[in-house]
């Protein structure tokens, strides 16, 4: 088991940020933490990194205490807001972080992997936000981490670079790395996270694969078709899909599309359920 949280609680100034939170992550899985601002996502990551301690409960990272240096050497972390010394080049920045981890300074293969090899000799002050984000990802990958923590990883990345990042995440998971992503880009995660943990006010309110969450939410799919020049929009549950499609085809329907509930829809459903 890569990560274990058992009944974890954390408060700041008397305000509960994480409440009775329990879950476990297995090696080689890609898991998304989904929640609004203040839902406790970043606080959890800080506890996993050993930067702060839970008030109660237990966190175990790679079988031990996250504050141990030997544990931290196997962690990778990309914060939401990446900050580097503006006078360092990309290569110097990565070399500095490699030294902190006790690794060889030469890391051009990582710079090439994130698409920065041609800019490696340029000062970071001249990097775009997307380039700084890619440099942050390169430092997170130093030492081939067994647990990779990504806080809003696609911030500042264009659609093509987002696809590259998720492709890289999939490759890492296939090699046994556990990847935990915190993101507000909910729809973007669809197809990239095999498990989604939904948070609200520091509590876990849903946990499962997208298929499981869709089934639990019971939200209808949206079917659109044009019949005799008239556009029809129909909400259908799982059992109604096949017979409705057959009926539309029998009527000579054209341009049929079927859209399952998105992650945004699922997230909103669970929040509404909590509010009720």
TrEMBL record:
Keywords in alphabetical order, please.
Answer: ATP-binding, Nucleotide-binding, Transport
Tell me which InterPro entries the record gives.
Answer: AAA+_ATPase, ABC_transporter-like_ATP-bd, ABC_transporter-like_CS, ABC_Transporter_VariousFunc, P-loop_NTPase
Using the record for this protein, list the coiled-coil segments as residue ranges, or answer none: none
Which residues does UniProt assign to the signal peptide? none
SUPFAM superfamilies, A to Z: P-loop containing nucleoside triphosphate hydrolases
Query: Where does the ABC transporter domain lie?
Result: 3-226
A Pfam family this protein belongs to?
A: ABC_tran
Which GO molecular function terms does the record list?
A: ATP binding; ATP hydrolysis activity
Record has ATP-binding as a keyword: yes
Q: What is this protein called?
A: ABC transporter ATP-binding protein
Organism for this UniProt entry: Paenirhodobacter hankyongi
């Amino acid at each position: 088991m890569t990560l274990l949280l058992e009944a974890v609680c954390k408060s700041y100034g008397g305000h509960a940020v994480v409440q009775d939170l329990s879950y476990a992550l297995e090696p080689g899985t890609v898991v998304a933490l989904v929640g609004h601002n203040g839902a406790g996502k970043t606080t959890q990551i800080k506890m996993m990194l050993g930067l702060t301690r839970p008030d109660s409960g237990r966190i175990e990272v790679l079988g031990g205490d996250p504050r141990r240096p030997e544990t931290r050497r196997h962690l990778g972390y990309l914060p939401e807001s990446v900050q580097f010394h503006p006078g360092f080049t990309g290569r110097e920045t990565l070399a500095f972080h490699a030294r902190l981890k006790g690794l060889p300074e030469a890391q051009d293969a990582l710079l090439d992997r994130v698409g920065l090899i041609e800019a490696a000799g340029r000062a970071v002050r001249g990097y775009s936000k997307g380039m700084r984000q890619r440099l942050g990802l390169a430092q997170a990958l130093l030492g081939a981490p067994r647990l990779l923590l990504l806080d809003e990883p696609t911030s500042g990345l264009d659609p093509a670079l987002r696809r590259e990042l998720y492709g890289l995440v999939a490759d890492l998971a296939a090699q046994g790395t556990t990847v935990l992503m915190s993101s507000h880009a909910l729809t973007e995660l669809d197809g990239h996270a095999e498990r989604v943990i939904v948070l609200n006010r520091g509590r876990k309110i849903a946990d499962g694969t997208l298929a499981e969450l869709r089934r639990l939410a019971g939200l209808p799919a949206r079917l659109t078709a044009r019949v005799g020049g008239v556009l029809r929009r129909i909400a259908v549950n799982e059992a109604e899909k096949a017979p409705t499609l057959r009926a539309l085809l029998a009527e000579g329907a054209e341009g049929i599309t079927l859209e399952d509930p998105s992650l945004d829809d699922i997230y909103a459903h669970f929040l509404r359920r909590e509010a009720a």
